[in-house]
Write a structure and sequence with these properties.
This protein folds into 2 domains: about 20-90 and about 350-495, no CATH class; about 90-345, no CATH class. It is about 75% helix and about 0% strand. The chain has helices spanning about 1-45, 55-70, 75-90, 90-110, 115-125, 125-145, 150-165, 170-185, 190-200, 205-230, 235-255, 260-270, 275-295, 295-305, 310-325, 350-365, 370-380, 385-400, 405-420, 425-440, 450-460, 460-465, 470-485, 490-495, and strands at about 325, 340. Helix 1 runs antiparallel to helix 2 (about 55-70) and helix 1 packs across helix 17 (about 370-380). The chain starts with a helix and ends with a helix. The model is unreliable at about 15-20 (pLDDT under 50).
Length: about 500
């Protein structure tokens, strides 16, 4: 009886708190998550927190949100689990892509594709302009394919290897790769987020892209200048001496050929032709296995020495490098991490992180906490600058709480569409804000699907590379500056007259 009485008192106090300030209740799970993540990273687990501690923090915060929803708002538990299930269903494609990226990294290693990309990259790239060149190359590929994920999984992987060989800061290289990839993704008419933002705001695609140029071009220009400055300050002579040794070691370990570059070219062309990313990556994995049989028979025999029959050796190598985290025993110590393949196994902690993030996001959404937080932000939007600022803030907050960039575009798009009309603002103002605040900031959150993916693909923790994602950091601030000073803020009247 005493326990039941205490439970009733607790529920009554929570209901009173809700009536006074349900925004505070909505923020409680967020505060708990931030506290747990801070303790995990700062005091207990450090860099190893991504291996399970942060996942458990997300699940605990999600359980807390679900408990509040059921206790305070009488939300049925089945409604919470249904929302979590829907979130997991929406990320199933991202999980499949992650598995295939791991398999691709492994088969492209044993086939010599990645070593060949590194080998030829070292011939044409120099540390003094490597970071700027990485940004430009990734921007071009992403513009052509409309996929930041596809860009980092192909040329991004190679650039990370080249940068490591040159002695470059890996986090800085990842920042350049991501900056270029998200610039192209943001502006490409083939990008899903670009199309989604235009649809949610109610504007046509090419008006949206044209209007984004006003903030995107200055942002990428500043990022490019910063990477040029960092590159010019690198120790080129020492780096190039090391690069020469790596090239020789790669040439000795693998059968290097220009024909190997057909594999990444084929994948990039498939993605550019709008072939589904899962199909394109699967073809890339299979091509990697085929090219391994053709170009690296001696290496296959070395790796699968436990098998005497040729077909068993080939079968073992294809499955081993596609599935497991593997390392090729090198003839030279200078190759280091270039001989390590992720395989599907190497992606499991990232997939676990995404699943945990979807549990937290689903519980928050089922409880109505995400909507309540967004409404609280909207309530302070009294003019154009504060409205656009609120949009940017909501997108960023949803990237951190819902853990998915699509929700960070869809939810604010629905919420703010009428508010922009009431303020007499053309819909492209909203679509640009959704991209500047939602698309590009998703990669800065470790437990967001984009942040988790890029960290797993490039092999650099989000907490290490985010500060070098200059384009992604600058973009929302550039959009806010334009709003504050009234630069390129199109009115509905102006649009109608035109």
């Amino acid at each position: 009886m005493k326990a039941s009485s205490n439970f009733a008192i607790l529920r009554e106090s929570l209901e009173t708190m809700t009536k006074r300030s349900n925004l505070l209740v909505a923020l409680l799970p967020v505060f708990l998550l931030i506290l747990l993540l801070f303790v995990n990273v700062r005091y207990i687990f450090g860099d190893d927190s991504i291996s399970g501690a942060n996942q458990w923090a997300l699940i605990l915060a999600g359980a807390f949100a679900a408990g509040l929803a059921m206790l305070v708002y009488k939300t049925p538990f089945t409604e919470v689990t249904d929302k979590i299930g829907n979130n997991l269903k929406e990320t199933s494609k991202a999980i499949m892509i992650l598995l295939l990226v791991g398999a691709l990294a492994g088969t492209w290693l044993i086939s010599g594709v990645i070593p060949a990309m590194v080998f030829y990259g070292l011939k044409v790239l120099h540390p003094s302009y490597f970071l700027a060149a990485s940004l430009i190359v990734c921007a071009i590929v992403s513009l052509a394919t409309g996929s930041s994920w596809g860009t980092t999984a192909t040329v991004g992987l190679a650039l990370m290897g080249i940068g490591e060989t040159m002695g470059m800061n890996g986090a800085m290289v990842a920042g350049a790769v991501i900056s270029g990839a998200y610039f192209g993704d943001k502006l490409s008419p083939m990008s899903d987020t670009t199309n989604l933002a235009a649809v949610m705001a109610g504007t046509d695609l090419f008006t949206h892209i044209k209007y984004m140029l006003y903030t995107t071009v200055p942002s990428i220009s500043i990022a490019l200048i910063l990477f040029i400055i960092f590159g010019l300050n690198s120790d080129a002579s020492t780096d190039m001496a090391s690069a020469g040794a790596v090239s020789d070691a790669l040439n000795e370990q693998f059968n290097i050929s220009l024909w190997l570059l057909l594999v990444p070219v084929a994948v990039i062309v498939l993605i550019a032709k709008k072939v589904d990313a899962i199909i394109a990556l699967l073809i890339g994995v299979i091509l990697g296995g085929v090219f391994a049989f053709i170009f690296q028979p001696a290496l296959i025999e070395q790796v699968a020495a436990g098998y005497t029959e040729s077909w068993k050796q080939h079968y073992y190598v294809f499955f081993e490098f596609a599935v497991r985290s593997t390392t090729i025993e090198g003839n030279s110590d200078v190759l280091g991490g270039l001989l390590e393949g992720k395989g599907m196994e190497g992606m499991m902690s990232t997939i676990w992180l995404i699943i945990s993030a979807m549990i937290f996001g689903g519980a928050m959404e089922a409880a109505g906490f995400l909507q309540r937080i967004a409404e609280g932000i909207l309530s302070i939007a009294t003019n154009t600058a504060s409205l656009i600022g609120s949009t940017l803030a909501t997108c960023g907050l949803l990237n951190a709480t819902a853990s998915d960039q699509y929700l960070a575009i869809v939810v604010p798009g629905k919420m703010y569409k009428d508010a922009y009309k009431e303020k007499g603002l053309a819909p492209e103002n909203l679509s640009r804000s959704l991209e500047d605040g939602g698309t590009v900031t998703s990669v800065l959150i470790p437990w967001n699907t984009c942040g988790a993916y890029q960290s797993a693909t490039l092999g650099i923790a989000t907490g290490e590379y985010w500060m070098y994602c200059f384009f992604n950091i600058i973009s929302p601030f550039m959009s806010l500056i334009y709003a504050i000073f009234g630069i390129k803020i199109r009115k509905l009247e102006t649009q109608n007259q035109a």
